[in-house]
Design brief:
single chain, 341 residues, alpha/beta, 434 Repressor (Amino-terminal Domain), Rossmann fold, 3 domains, seven-stranded mixed beta sheet, five-stranded parallel beta sheet, 14 helices, 47% helix, elongated
Length: 341
């Protein structure tokens, strides 16, 4: 059996109240008595259940989610999942609030992070823009003993405590294999659509995609990356222009969001061309495009799992506790029209 506070009291020859004062570092205990209790804790191998103690004390965890604004269907889903987590706050003893910042705007993200200093914050989750100044701001929070989790896109070289998202290099490689196999040995050009190379998840997906394409499908040539800033209007214009300017394009890989604009361009400019298209994130728009054959496959990450994981990890880290790595691993789902949930 695990040692209890009763065992500590018996070993040290003190009352339960004294043990409680020592464990919670409260005053009113003589130094010699405190040393006896601490020696008993070491001798019997007592490990405090911090989570249970906080539950007994009714501790509430104020958590902040910093999310980008913009007309991005996946991010709309992420917002919805955070709001869903808010409905569980009374059960999970959290107080969650959302701070909005413009997408792909490092100075705005830094300002939002720095504003949290001095506030009652038990943890911060953010969709990171991968920039040195953002990394420095995250490190300042960690130095201030505030747990930080990155969501969806990680932050290179930072001191953040955990990343809640998929393996994006593996995701890019998976997209390349699907696209290459679907094209069945055809020779031609591939248009790659990103949101911004300022975010690590887009860079890593491109890295994985390009590496596997070069190694296993050399007959397919990658065109320069189009950056649509995850904006449907910008994306539609870029893709329409690319398709109108070349008949050699036979495949499209959308590694970010902005898929509403992509789908619009494909239906307007790519009709009848037999394009093979792989995209990320299952939304109502990509679902419909899968069903009508406009796109061929969707790689998806579970935004709800990412939010729930962030909450669990932030609470555990705030308590100085570990977490189960396997439970927090975010899987990559592959959907075609035949296995839609």
């Amino acid at each position: 059996m695990r040692p209890t506070v009763y065992d500590i009291a018996a070993a040290a020859g003190v009352s339960l109240a004294t043990v409680d004062r020592v464990l919670n570092q409260r005053p009113g205990v003589r130094i010699v008595t405190r040393e006896k209790v601490e020696a008993a804790i070491r001798d019997i191998g007592y490990v405090r259940d911090v989570a249970a103690a906080n539950l007994a004390k009714g501790r509430v965890y104020p958590l902040v989610f910093i999310l980008p604004t913009g007309d991005n269907s996946f991010m709309h889903g992420l917002y919805a999942e955070v709001r869903q987590a808010m409905t569980r706050s009374s059960l999970e003893r959290t107080e969650i609030r959302i701070v909005q910042v413009p997408a792909f705007d490092p100075p705005a993200l830094v300002a939002a992070l720095d504003a949290l200093h001095g506030q009652d914050v038990a943890g911060v989750a953010l969709v990171a823009t991968d920039a040195p100044e953002v990394r420095a701001a995250v490190d300042r929070l960690v130095d201030a003993r505030i747990p930080v989790v990155t969501l969806v896109s990680d932050l290179t070289g930072s001191a953040r405590h955990h990343y809640a998202g998929v393996d994006n290099i593996a995701a890019g490689r998976t997209a390349a294999r699907l696209l290459g196999r679907f094209l069945g040995g055809r020779k031609g050009d591939i248009t790659v659509l990103a949101g911004s190379m300022l975010v690590r998840d887009h860079r890593e997906r491109l890295e994985g995609f390009a590496a596997l394409m070069a190694a296993e499908f050399p007959q397919l040539r990658l065109l320069p990356v189009l950056e649509g800033r995850d904006d449907p209007e910008i994306t539609s214009g870029l893709v329409s222009e690319a398709l109108a300017g070349s008949n050699d394009i036979i495949g499209v890989y959308s590694l970010g969001a902005g898929n509403r604009g992509l789908i619009r361009a494909l239906k307007a400019t790519g009709q009848g061309r037999g394009l093979t298209v792989v995209v990320h994130e299952l939304t109502e728009h990509t679902r419909a495009a899968l069903q009508d054959g406009t796109i061929d496959a969707v790689l998806n990450q579970d935004a709800g799992h990412e939010v729930r994981s962030a909450v669990r990890v932030l609470k555990a880290t705030a308590d100085g506790q570990g977490f189960i790595a396997g439970q927090e691993r975010i899987r990559l789902d592959i959907f075609v029209k035949d296995n839609l949930p």
